[in-house]
Amino acid sequence: MDFLEPLTLVFMQRGLAAGVLVALACGLLGCFVVLRGMEYIGDAISHSVFPGVVVAYALGGSLLLGGLVAGLATALLISVLNRGGKLRDSTAIGVVFTGALALGVLLMGWTRSGGRDLSHFLFGNILGVSNTDLIFTCALALLVFGCVVLFYKELTLSSFDPTHARKIGIPVDALRTGLLILLTLTIVAGAQSVGVLLVTALLITPAATASLLSRRLPSMIAIATGLAVMSVLVGLYASYFFDASSGATIVLVITISFLISWGFLSKRV
Q: Residues with Cβ < 8 Å from 260, sequence gap 6 or more?
């Protein structure tokens, strides 16, 4: 078995590059998502891009652009409903998520798409990543990295102690909205590689694993990012040699890493 064989194929090179870029963005954001208890928001956004995808399909436009518009609208609506703590996260997510998903199903029936041409966006096609997709994903990863570096202190404080952060003048609600927007961009960018329905696992599971192994945010981010990248590399290689679904294999590798970490720590306690 020649382990260098996949690297000689252009579509594998693009897939690996796109997957690693998405993994880096997910690893950076995932820790803040887990610390803030926003896991279900990521899941809601990943499902709520569906109406935008259906509309874009019906109009013959870009599925990525349609999903992006719908995802950003969802993120902003959840942020508005939750502003000031008047409505709990879980309640706002439940209302927006179910409504958006129902709208997507209704629109899909009207456009008579049957879902056949939308499966590519929902489940991903990492081996079909184009140069345009790669450029878009690279720009997204740079944006996420830049925002995290620029607002690292504010994000850290508002994640661990939002009450104190508000008292010293940090715009907690604005930071939360910004994080939701970055989360949406990451989910939509990951649609071409691991898929809309699977990118949530890449965001949450490595960060959850890192939270088991470390209590310090810098090391959590390093572990989560490393696990996400490792899962993409191992999962993509395994899917190539065993002729399996790339997205599902990547997520399975992530899940196994989490279970191993959890089992190891359980034995030590």
A: none
